[in-house]
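Progress narrative, Year 2. Work on UDP-3-O-(3-hydroxymyristoyl)glucosamine N-acyltransferase from Namhaeicola litoreus advanced from sequence curation to structure prediction during this period.
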Amino acid sequence: MKFPRTYTLEEISLIIDCQYIGDSNFSVLGMNEIHVVEPGDIVFVDHPKYYDKALQSAATIVLINKEVDCPEGKALLISDDPFRDFNKLSLFFRPFQSSHSHISETAIIGKNTVIQPNVFVGNHVVIGENCVIHSNVSLYDHTIIGDHVTIHAGSVIGGDAFYYKKRPAGFDQLLSCGRVVIEDHVDIGASCTIDRGVTGDTTIGEGTKIDCQVQIGHDTVLGKKCLVAAQVGIAGCCVIEDEVTIWGQVGITSGVTVGSKAVLQGKTGVSKSLEGGKVYYGVPAGEVREKLRELAVLKYLPQLIEKLKITL
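Result:
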């Protein structure tokens, strides 16, 4: 997320009441998670395991819970709880805005777009031309929708990321201030849920078609001309490249990449990145021919146990 203007390091330190290391006039342009940071961004880190990754990232301001050597050309914000202070910045720059009507006065809706009864359109939502938004769809704040998009009844676009930190007293949520961006010619089935990015965008690429009851997690990028069948669950921060086909009840864990033109057959469980141009099946996912051979061999296991007099 980019800030509405350039802030100084000192100004940011006053917002979250913390010390800093670096030039007080050091420019701060925005805040983002580690996988989408750019120069001028703040990134937070609160575990020694990830210090080096944050300090060597593209981010030039690191919100950290220990005073360490500051890399050249960067600045540090020293906090006893970076997670909490990252949330403070989210609340400061994108506070929750309540709505007072079903369609916000700040929403922009293009020509020939049909909004059916009982649709909720939040603050600063942009909907393109020739779209159809069916009844009981909820479009949360800052959602961006292109042209020729259809969203069927009961879908929720822009809910919070499922992102929590375990505390002794329970779970603290990392607040979401990102967006969902849906490109042109996308169809979304009934009762789908697409979570907004924590600070960046969850993106659905041009020409992609999504069936009913699909969940797509925060900051995931779903490429162009993908097909996603019913009851698929895609976790946060995934990259699904162009023209991938995902059949029913597939589950994909967070942070993986599925290469272009891959096919994931029904009920496949994806726990690591997969190359494009191949067909996958099983849990964990493997190339379909290999998985089918494994299943064929399993049929002979009882006979093998009997033949070898194996006692189980």
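The longest strand covers residues 2-8. The chain has two domains: 2-93, 108-285.
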